[in-house]
Amino acid sequence: MLNILQNIKFKKGGNRLQAKMSKDLEDVKRDQEHVYTAADKTRKIWKVTPAGYKELLKRNIEKEYRRGPDNLIDSINAEDRDVAVELDIDDRQIYKIQEQDAFITLKDHKPNFLNNPQCRLINPTKSELGKVSKIILERVVSDVKSKSGLQLWKNTKSVIDWFNGLQNKGNLKFIQFDINTFYPKISKKLVTKAIDYARQFTTITNQQKKIIIQSSRDILINNGEIWVKKGDADKFSVTMGSFSGAEVCELVGLYLLHLITTSLKGPKKLIGLYRDDGLLVTSARPRQVETLRKKLCELFPKVGLSIEAHANLNTVDFLDVTFNLSMDTYKPFMKPGDYPRYVDLQSDHPPQVHKILPLGVQTRLSTNSSTKEMFDAAAPPYQAALNQAGYPHTLEYDERAGAGPAPNARNRRNRRRNEIFYCPPFSRIVETKIGKEFLRAIDKSFPPGNALHKKLTRHNVKLSYSCMPNMKKRIGRNNRRILNSGTDEEVEPCVCTRYECPLQGDCGKKNVIYQAEVICEDGRVEFYIGSCSTTFKARYGTHRTNMNNPNYRDKGTRLSKFTWELKDQGINFQVKWRIVDRAPPYNPRTRKCALCTRESYYINYQRHMATLNSRFEVFGACRHRNMECLVKHV
């Protein structure tokens, strides 16, 4: 593996798209006067001054949030830690709440946007305990849905199956309703009622109920400040993007369907809900249908919600499909002003992505079309988008799409395999075939007869390329750099009194790659590379202990072992320290540690700077990941 890493070959060249993207990215980086902000429901990107962006962000935060206590995150982490210990899952990698700054997208589709810009506030901070809540709620929702007979839709395909199952469509009319601001309006009281209703069909212990409630908390971070929802004493809130937010929404949706069917006294199979969008069909007369609509509008305020409902409809646009009752047809739906756009064939994506993308578009359009005529009428804009992206594929109607397995098909036994996936990033400029070389190294290192051959073969070690950071991530990184340019780094002051500061006053810096230069009196000079996510002075204290305390001479680093060898030989030496680089530590969101990666780069590719380091150090586990866990592991 080390030889593969050190012998990677790159090739020059590129293509039209890569050259244009590189130029656009350079223009973005050169523009220090603006941040680039995405629109909410369109593909536009707006240039906003940093001051204007901060003002919009502050205005939207203060509209919904108030300042919270500074120790709030620590107290929530402590509560989550207690739950993890109680569930006996504290031996797993469950991370603390990751403090991520909130951001906004611009609602440029709203009227008078330029004079009165409106924004959507996005809060990416979430609790890892939501993963446990998600597993609990998935089981609960599945049990309630199957035993109650309620129509809770998971995707477009389930809505189409429901529509196809309706009888006498020509005599039916739609009532379509949309729940206003569904996620923010879900209260703790409503979730509690939904849990009590679900207990009629499945088991939910008090401990599981506590986990569901506890994982639904809204904490917003902005420039290191903690904010909580206004008027919310227990900080309960269901946020979009949280680990269990969608499942909580589905559980509440089942309870709402129960209330609707009970109140309107309608058959369960004629009413369905997908998140905040609902459909109801009835054969009643127009005046009676309007009465049903009014009853529906009166029902939701009783649970703290409000809806917009439209009745006596023959045709509705629901999700990404247009349904027509009188003609018994459905076809793909596209919002006015929207247009499809796909990954360019010259983009830096793995070949498999380019291979399956046109087939995926064709399958989706075929599934959302009731007939070939509907498919042919909807296909031109999608075909034009594929052609513009460089794909030679011609879209054709597939009547088997979405039909499920063939009637005579044998059910395959799904057996869980113990597989290991190796996912190197894909890039067109890499000439070396990384995957091929990796699998060859597996064959050579673990031949038949090796003790690990059964565990590490091509049958259970799989290769799957990942993608490099896209333009959105790169622009977001540039935006953060501009927005944080005026923020001074918090550096602990130097308090070195017992010895001379090794970094001339910079020992309080964190997240550093440092180098130790050992100068021997016999003329030898050796170098050691290390990293630390704590302050350097804390790491330096450990190095001093390893180099001066005989009890640690065999337990320290290669640097300390080398200095003890010099002492045994009676050779005097001097150690000088300096910071060579900096990088962020382990990030639970990306599952990557840039600090360890940067250290590995210097050890493997700058050998003259790390003569004392072993190349095999790069295979060690990340030491910084444990710092982000709720329960630290030895």
Give structural attributes.
634 residues, 18 helices, 3-stranded antiparallel β-sheet, 5-stranded mixed β-sheet
Description of the structure:
There is one protein chain. This protein has 634 residues and is an alpha+beta fold. Helices cover 36% and strands 18% of the residues. It has 18 helices and 24 strands. The strands form 9 sheets. A 5-stranded mixed beta sheet has the order 6-10-11-7-12, covered by helices on one side. It has a 3-stranded antiparallel beta sheet with strand order 3-9-8. The protein has a 3-stranded antiparallel beta sheet with strand order 13-14-15. Strand 23 and strand 24 form a beta hairpin. Helix 5 (130-148) packs parallel to helix 10 and helix 10 (245-264) packs across helix 11 (286-299). The relative contact order is 0.10. The model has no long low-confidence stretch (mean pLDDT 88).
